[in-house]
Write a structure and sequence with these properties.
The protein has 139 residues and is α+β, with helices and mostly antiparallel strands. It contains four helices and six strands; from the N terminus they run ββαββαααββ. The protein is rod-shaped.
């Protein structure tokens, strides 16, 4: 049996006997020749091309990982920004309601909201919890 190979210089295809092919791959000291007389051998270990290919693949992987990290951070930032905008909206609605005399706790309207808050909801002024009109709490 024989193995087809190609000359590195003239690109001519030719065949090597199995024994010579295996021996040439096992040892860098064995040379063989194409039909046109160009000498060749199989280098021992990893070729420079293989090293560069491996380095290229590693760098591509690092770039992909960084792209994923950037995408995840951007998504997290956009989520936090949307949540912040929503919280600002709730605070603005509560301030507007309180400005019109509507109690944020029981949704009743009062002329003197300050007196009502101190007498009926004293714990509200002491806490940092904001009650939304629908009863939900915000920190």
């Amino acid at each position: 049996m024989s193995v087809q190979t190609t000359c590195w210089k003239c690109k001519t295809a030719y065949y090597l006997p199995d024994e010579l092919y295996r021996a040439a791959q096992a040892s860098e000291n064995i040379s063989f020749y194409c039909p046109y007389g160009h000498s060749a051998h199989y280098p021992a270990g990893e070729t420079e091309e293989d090293k560069l290919r491996r380095e290229r693949d590693r760098l591509r992987q690092q770039i992909a990982e960084r792209d994923d990290a950037v995408r995840a951070e951007r998504t997290r930032r956009e989520t936090v920004e949307r949540r912040l905008v929503a919280q600002r909206g709730v605070v603005t609605r509560i301030k507007n309601r309180v400005g019109h005399g509507v109690c944020p706790c029981c949704s009743r309207t009062f002329e003197n909201l300050q007196r009502h808050m101190h007498s009926k909801h004293p714990e509200y002024a002491k806490s940092d919890v904001i009650l939304a009109p629908d009863g939900a709490t915000m920190q």
